[in-house]
Amino acid sequence: MYRVYLDFLETAEKKRHWNIFNDVPWERLETSKATENCAQCVEIFCAEELYVPDYSSNGLELVRSRFGMAWFQTCWAFEESRHGLVFREYLTRSGLRSEAHVEALEASVCAKAWKLPFQTPRQMACYGALQEGATYVAYRRQRDQARSANDRVLEAIFHLVGRDEAAHGGFYRAIIELELAQDRAATIADLAEVISNFKMPGDGLIANYQQRLRACGAGISARAFVEHVVWPLLVTLQISRQELKAAINARR
Ligand SMILES: [Fe+2]
Ligand SMILES: [Fe+2]
Questions:
Q1: Digit-coded pLDDT (tens) for 220-229
Q2: Rounded to whole angstroms, how far apart are CA atoms 57 and 247?
Q3: Pairwise CA distance, residues 75 & 224, whole Å
Q4: According to the CATH classification, is domain 33-251 in 1.10.1900.20?
Q5: What angle do CA 206, 225, 111 make, to 5 degrees?
Q6: DSSP three-state, residue 15
Q7: 200 C-alpha vs ligand 2 centroid, how far in Å?
Q8: Phi and psi dihedrals of 205, rounded to 5?
Q9: What's the whole-model pTM score?
Q10: Which end of the chain is more exposed for a tag (fewer CB within 10 A), N or C?
């Protein structure tokens, strides 16, 4: 686990790290391109990312005795903290949202706490792989839309943030591979459990979450989740669909 984390860290430090101040071309921000629809998408992503104190404290408490995992959690928390901030900066610098509006958003986030959706480190690794994968797919779509609209700022933001999510998903996949090598049947049972009960972290925390995602086109459909997240995960992990389906049926 430590080796997996060190590989993750080496790539992050050498190739992936970015900062909000130099790597987003803020000077190219054109208020004419910043639409209300962009604001609604970025605002819901921002709210979801702003729960990072809960994600990181609960996650770290769960894995504190697992050396590589605990260090990953601390690094991950910092990377995720940049996501909420860059979205917040976009909302205010573009003029789409006032400081007062964003402060009210922060207050609404602080009013509710996120709780771990699953109770074991192995289940949470499965959840992490799926959640990061789904977030990556959603951000990739936003990046492509921004590119088509010639919006260089949003394109850069979704590129940088999405690349982090992809790397996080890769880390969790590597952890699941270790778990599979140790206990294949129990790991597949956990994966089946997590897939059967999966929901995004903002679902149930952020008011009208699904409705808002649908209204602005920020979410991904259940079908896209299966096609672009679940099936590719199974391919990487070399788990057949039949094996997964059998594990899902065994839960019933
Ligand atoms: Fe994130
Ligand atoms: Fe992430």
A1: 999 999 999 9
A2: 31
A3: 29
A4: no
A5: 10
A6: helix
A7: 12
A8: -105, -45
A9: 0.97
A10: C
C-alpha dist (Å) from residue 235 to 107, 246, 249:
41, 16, 20
Single-letter residue type at 123: Q
Cβ 66 vs Cβ 2: under 8 Å: no
DSSP alpha helix (H) spans, the chain = 2-11, 36-49, 52-63, 67-93, 99-110, 121-148, 152-182, 184-196, 209-216, 222-225, 231-237, 241-251
Q: Which amino acid is at 127?
A: Y
Provide the β-strand partners of residue 72.
none
Distance 74 CA to ligand 2 centre (A): 12
Domain extent listing, the chain: 33-251
Cα 180 vs. chain centroid, distance in angstroms? Answer: 23
Tell me how far apart the alpha carbons of residues 167 and 24 are, in angstroms, rounded to a whole number: 19
Residue 166 CB neighbour total at 10 angstroms:
17
In this structure, the number of other CB atoms found within 10 A of the CB of residue 179 comes to 21
Using CA atoms, how far apart are residues 42 and 212, in angstroms rounded to an integer? 11
d(CA 137, CA 143): 10
112 CA from centroid of ligand 1 (Å): 19
How many angstroms separate the alpha carbon of residue 128 from the centre of ligand 2? 8
Rounded Cα distance between 180 and 191, Å, is: 10
The alpha carbon of 130 and the centre of ligand 2 are apart by a number of angstroms equal to 10
Burial call 63-93: b when 16+ CB within 10 Å, e when fewer: beebebbbbbbebbbebbbbbbebbbbbbee
Tell me if 187 sits within 8 A of 176, measured CB to CB: yes
